[in-house]
Amino acid sequence: LRPDLSNTWIALAALKAAGVEADDPTVKAAMVFVKRCQNSSEVNDQKELAGEDGGAMYLPGETFGIDSSDPNGKKLFTSTGSMTCAMIFAYLAGGVNKDDPPLHLALQWLGKNWSPERNPNSKKDGQEALFYYYRVLAQTLLASGEKTVGGKAWAQELAGAIVKRQKEDGAWSNAVDRFTESDPALATGYALSALAACQQAMK
């Protein structure tokens, strides 16, 4: 099976919850992969695949974000909000310090691109994978202990954005049917998970 950053952060979240320490060989091996998803030649040893914005792509050399290129026409592997949050959570689970370049650069990217209304740099005007983004964004920022992002009180803003998208029947769904988010069962699960993290952060 092909590895990707989405599965990796979820696996690391499970390992952390199970009490696996950051110095465990499995976690250390995962950190090598995570760094190769970061758009930073300072961090990523596969420099030919790395951009320089500090955020994260889905996997080395592949992104589900908007297409972009440099002035010479070279393809750029776009960082997205959902994958940058996934990378931040992975770094936290892997024991990376906030002042260390990998995590510092990722948090900077998130602050510059903060939005509770769209998944930054994703397709369909940022509406693709929106509820997945809400879930990983909220869980990541809760784990980080950060109260603000880009100068904004993230938990309050994010909760407000999610609540206003609730349907009359109480569920959530995404009109952009990528990654099955039009299914209310999936989107509602993501939304409630994000709201629970927001509530905990506001205590």
Report the average pLDDT across residues: 93
DSSP strand content? under 5%
Specify the helix fraction band. Answer: 40-55%
Number of strands: 4
Q: What Rg is obtained from the alpha carbons, in whole angstroms?
A: 16 Å
Strand count, sense and barrel status of the largest sheet are: 2 strands, antiparallel
Strand order, biggest sheet? 1-2
Shape: globular
Question: H/E order of the elements?
Answer: HHEEHHHHEEHH
Structure description:
This protein is mainly alpha-helical. It is built from eight helices and four strands. It has a two-stranded antiparallel ribbon. A two-stranded antiparallel ribbon has the order 3-4. Strand 1 and strand 2 (75-76) form a beta hairpin. The protein is globular, with a radius of gyration of 16 Å.
Topology overview:
Elements (H helix, E strand, L loop, with lengths): L4 H13 L7 H11 L32 E2 L5 E2 L4 H13 L7 H12 L10 H4 L3 H15 L3 E2 L2 E2 H10 L20 H18 L2
Antiparallel strand pairs: 1-2, 3-4
